[in-house]
TrEMBL record:
Gene3D superfamilies: NAD(P)-binding Rossmann-like Domain (3.40.50.720), UDP-galactose 4-epimerase, domain 1 (3.90.25.10). The lineage of its organism: Bacteria, Pseudomonadati, Pseudomonadota, Gammaproteobacteria, Enterobacterales. This is SDR family oxidoreductase. It comes from Atlantibacter subterraneus. Pfam families: NmrA. One of its GO terms (molecular function) is NAD(P)H dehydrogenase (quinone) activity. PANTHER family: NMRA-LIKE DOMAIN-CONTAINING PROTEIN, QUINONE OXIDOREDUCTASE 2. InterPro entries: NAD(P)-bd_dom_sf (IPR036291), NmrA-like (IPR008030), NmrA-type_oxidoreductase (IPR052718).
Length: 282
């Protein structure tokens, strides 16, 4: 039996969909905070189990009978380390035989502030005694493509990534990789540095937007402070705005670039290009 945390999230939904193609629905467990959001999964025969990351007892109950767990990192930055520890402890008490954790690309040396909680989780996994495999995911193409409508509206794409290369891939690509690892034997102790085959800069992305739409869009590279302020002005909470700006600066330092092609080798095909993802969005 395979369990997935955050099963109703963007990545989790893709993972469940891919698992359903190769596994019996009754052998899949979707761990969610709000079962109402997972009704479509329940209708397909997936076991939906409710558990809050802050409730160790509920987590331990939700993981009963589970052999492998995909721990998709929490979206609550600042609370991730504690939440992840709760899940790992629950998995250990439930006798889970393998945890696959979605970490960050080169987490142990990343210039992104996001790496701190990922490293803390990786270290806790190492101390837990539970066999584990690390899926160090690079950036999702969707992270930047969500800004395309605003860029078209204002004629400008803003960021702080400078000339930093971003080796992104689609969420579907990363989901396929997770499913492949969960389906293979002898994965304990492995570390996968996962990123897209083709890297690009924000200036190049902007050129692609212009070429595909016929509208002039320019890339404005801002300071970290100015980018964070602009994001706040667009309605994002201060903490999240600062996080995104920090990540862009990290990208300018090479934090989102990797040319090892481990992702495409793992899924057995080239990763989805930013061009294809952009065309889909447009």
């Amino acid at each position: 039996m395979i369990a997935v945390t955050g099963a109703t999230g963007h990545l989790g939904q893709w993972v469940i969909e891919k698992l359903l193609a190769t596994h019996n629905a009754q052998d899949l467990v979707a761990i969610v905070r709000n079962p109402a959001k997972a009704q479509t999964l329940a209708d397909k025969g997936v076991q939906v189990r409710e558990a809050d990351y802050g409730n160790p007892a509920a987590l331990a109950s939700a993981l009963q009978g589970v052999e492998k767990l995909l721990l998709i990192s929490s979206s609550e930055v600042g609370q991730r380390a504690v939440q992840h520890r709760n899940i790992i402890d629950a998995a250990k008490s439930a006798g889970v035989q393998l945890i696959a954790y979605t970490s960050l690309l080169r987490a142990d040396s990343s210039p992104l502030g996001l790496h701190v909680e990922h490293v803390a989780t990786e270290n806790y996994l190492a101390q837990s005694g539970v066999p584990y495999v690390l899926l160090r995911n690079g950036w999702y193409s969707e992270n930047y493509l969500a800004s395309v409508p605003a860029a078209l509206e204002h004629g400008a794409f803003i960021g702080s990534a400078g000339e930093g290369k971003i080796a992104s891939a689609s969420r579907e690509d990363y989901a396929e990789a997770a499913v492949k690892v969960l389906s293979l034997d002898n994965q304990a102790g492995k570390v996968y540095e996962l990123a897209g085959d083709n890297a690009w800069t924000l200036a190049e992305l902007t050129e692609k937007i212009s070429a595909l739409t016929g509208k002039t869009v320019v890339y404005n590279n801002l300071s970290e402070a100015d980018f964070a302020a602009a994001l706040q002005g667009a309605g994002l909470p201060e903490g999240f705005a600062r996080l995104l700006a920090d990540s862009d600066v990290g990208a300018s330092k090479g934090g989102l670039f990797d040319d090892g092609h481990q992702l495409s080798r793992l899924i057995g095909r080239p990763t989805t290009t930013i061009d294809d993802s952009l065309k889909a969005v447009l």
